[in-house]
Design brief:
With 623 residues, the chain is of the alpha/beta class. It starts with a strand and ends with a helix. The mean pLDDT is 92. Strand 4, helix 2 and strand 5 form a beta-alpha-beta unit. Helix content is 36%, strand content 19%. The longest helix has 18 residues.
């Protein structure tokens, strides 16, 4: 096979995220492209064996991988509830559950590995089955290769000589399943063992039992010669120079911030409050004191952004991280940074809302909040990352724009990117763009005031402790010439327009919009339009449809050739995980633009096949 999609499902305590990550990481080290989708419940711990407690992890690996995939080739179900959820998805309570190509989450010839020890009558009752045969009840077709394995019993047998208690033993059964999957894909066990040892290096007591169980799982498949189709991935990417690893979006974001501070010659300051799903950025930066990172866990969201603004005034590269609810709380302070014209990076890892909403699920619903969610005329730069790997690139770019243009920059990622992983080429520092902070020139010593601007309309940055550059910076409107407090009406309008023009001129510093061809040399009147994390799914859909795609990473300001690109197409379809926020924004920026919309708000990434069906089913309408 060129590509394969594997889905691991089990209880929240069954270690599905660890299992999936280890499998994906080995795939990356072997040279496969990967894309992953961790999918876990928001509850701290739902009752064991229930539908609400199922945690999943899906990965696609191979070559030309754009998404975690729509339909699984291999499913690992650790109990009855997991079997139902990972085969029927949100349709698990469908009154006539059966295999149907319209909503099935697996291929007709998939391999389904299930723990037979977790299919007792009590397990089936907790998972809301109505018969004693889950496979028939779920409508799993005969073409599916069902592999019943007594994972629990075999794990207990493997560790019967250990001094571990029963609870600790049961936590190892995910490793038996992982070993079986390694056998199914004919992966090298020596590399798998090395990854496991590295994962548990801080808990060495766990290495031996987990390694033994994993090897036993591999040998189980090898020795019994299970009568199932093994999978060989022959789609490998072309040989490329450099070092590669798998990386999650939150970690890539943290690395991008660190790299930008290093390039700019600044200390990195993070002022943040923990919030799902952004907290991992705080964790990563808090561990990097060796890279001159100062991380403060503030008492709330407002304190987090205010400490960052103070650090920006003091001359540091300042950032704060949050999700949608926290961005709401930070809005007044972001307005202070706009008025004071200080460099600030705000990372918003979007999640399902409003309010607490779906804190572990993904959405693109903070766009209009990022663009307009502040009092007064309060423009900021808005960027969006489009893959787990390029969270690094756009975190770095957010810092560059903030430092060179003395403005807050909001970087939008989301749960899908933050928790998912992708293959990442580790860059060298000399490959990264230069960053030139807008520091005050020496010739202004003794005559500096905060109203002075360069030819782009960007004010200069002076820090406390710089002799001859003393000044005060405030949240009140200031005089355009002297920098003192001003309530003059004409002056206020002048300053509002100056701050807006400063953001608008950044369009000259960013790349022009590029068209991605769905197929080489294709000519199409159809254009898919997306922004942020939907790029992989839209790219795959464009390939299947043979149409073109543009993906926006720079949202405010828009790339300067946006109008010219969009005007080429007869049919423009804006696809986003909200009710149409980017489509509304495009209409406001380009009056008269005719757009179609494809929107989903289900807490999940797009499915490629649904996009394709929408475009095809609506062609006749447009004709």
């Amino acid at each position: 096979m060129k590509n394969a999609i594997v889905r691991f499902c089990g209880d929240s305590g069954d270690g599905m995220q660890l299992t999936g990550n280890l499998f994906a990481q080995l795939g990356a080290e072997l040279g496969h492209e990967i894309s992953t989708l961790p999918d876990f419940p928001a509850e701290i711990r739902a009752p064991q064996g229930t539908l609400g407690g199922v945690s999943g992890f899906q990965v696609e690996l191979g070559s030309e991988v754009y998404t975690p995939g729509d339909k699984a080739d291999v499913i690992v179900a650790m109990n009855a509830a997991a079997l139902k959820v990972c085969t029927l998805g949100s349709h698990f309570n469908h009154p006539q559950a059966h295999y149907d190509d319209d909503f099935a989450l697996y291929h007709r010839y998939a391999v389904v590995i299930v723990d037979t020890d977790s299919l007792s009558p009590k397990d089936l009752e907790k998972a809301q089955y109505h018969t004693d045969n889950p496979f028939t009840e779920l409508g799993i077709p005969e073409s599916v290769q069902i592999v019943p394995v007594a994972l629990t019993s075999l794990t207990k047998e493997a560790l019967k000589e250990s001094d571990m208690d029963n609870k600790a033993v049961l936590k190892c059964r995910n490793m038996f399943a992982l070993g079986l999957i390694y056998w199914l894909f004919d992966e090298p066990m020596e590399k798998a063992i090395h990854l496991l040892e590295d994962k548990f290096k801080k808990k060495p007591a766990l290495i031996a039992p987990n390694t033994k169980v994993m090897v036993d799982g591999y040998n189980y498949g090898q020795n019994l010669a299970l009568n199932i189709n093994r999978i060989h991935l022959d789609g490998r990417p072309a040989e490329a120079h450099g070092k590669y690893t798998s990386i999650a979006g939150n970690r890539a974001t943290a690395f991008g911030l660190i790299a930008a501070a290093e390039k700019a010659g600044k200390h990195l300051f993070l002022g943040s409050y923990p919030i799902t799903p952004a907290t991992d950025i705080l964790h990563e930066l808090a561990s990097r004191k060796d890279m001159n990172v100062m991380a403060v866990q503030a008492e709330d969201e407002i304190a987090g952004v205010c400490t960052a603004i103070g650090a920006a005034f003091a001359g540091d590269l300042a950032c704060t991280t949050t999700s949608g609810p926290g961005l709401s709380l930070k809005s007044e302070a972001i307005g202070l940074a706009v008025m004071a014209e200080l460099p600030l990076v705000v990372v918003d890892v979007q999640r399902g809302g409003p309010s607490t909403g779906l804190p572990t699920k993904t959405e693109q619903t903070d766009l209009l909040q990022a663009l307009y969610g502040r009092n007064g005329e309060c423009p900021v730069v808005v960027l969006a990352a489009s893959s787990s790997a390029n969270c690094f690139d756009f975190a770095y770019e957010a810092c560059r724009i903030a430092l060179e243009n003395m403005t807050p920059v909001i970087l939008l990622t989301d749960t899908y990117l933050a928790n998912g992983t992708a293959l990442w080429r580790i860059p060298q520092m000399n490959e990264l763009p230069e960053i030139h902070p807008q520091c005050v020139p020496e010739e202004l010593k003794g005559k500096y005031n905060p109203a002075l601007r360069d030819e782009r309309g960007v004010r200069y940055w002076a820090f406390p402790g710089m002799e001859g550059y003393e000044h005060r910076n405030i949240g009140l409107e200031r005089d355009a010439q002297r920098g003192t407090i001003s309530t003059n009406p004409e002056n206020h309008e002048q300053m509002v327009r100056a701050r807006q023009q400063k953001i608008a001129q950044i369009a000259n510093q960013i790349p022009e919009l590029k068209v991605i061809k769905g197929r080489k040399d294709s000519s199409s009147e159809i254009l898919l339009v997306g922004w942020g994390s939907t790029e992989g799914h839209l790219h795959a859909a464009a390939n299947e449809l043979g149409c073109d795609l543009v993906q926006f990473n720079y949202i405010c300001p828009l790339p300067r050739n946006t109008r010219e690109i969009l005007s080429r197409y007869k049919r423009i379809i804006v696809c986003e995980l909200n009710t149409g926020q980017f489509a509304a924004y495009l209409r406001s920026q380009i009056p008269g633009l005719e757009l179609e919309q494809y929107n989903e708000i289900q807490g999940q990434p797009f499915a490629v096949e649904r996009i394709v069906k929408f475009v095809k089913n609506n062609e006749s309408v447009k004709e």
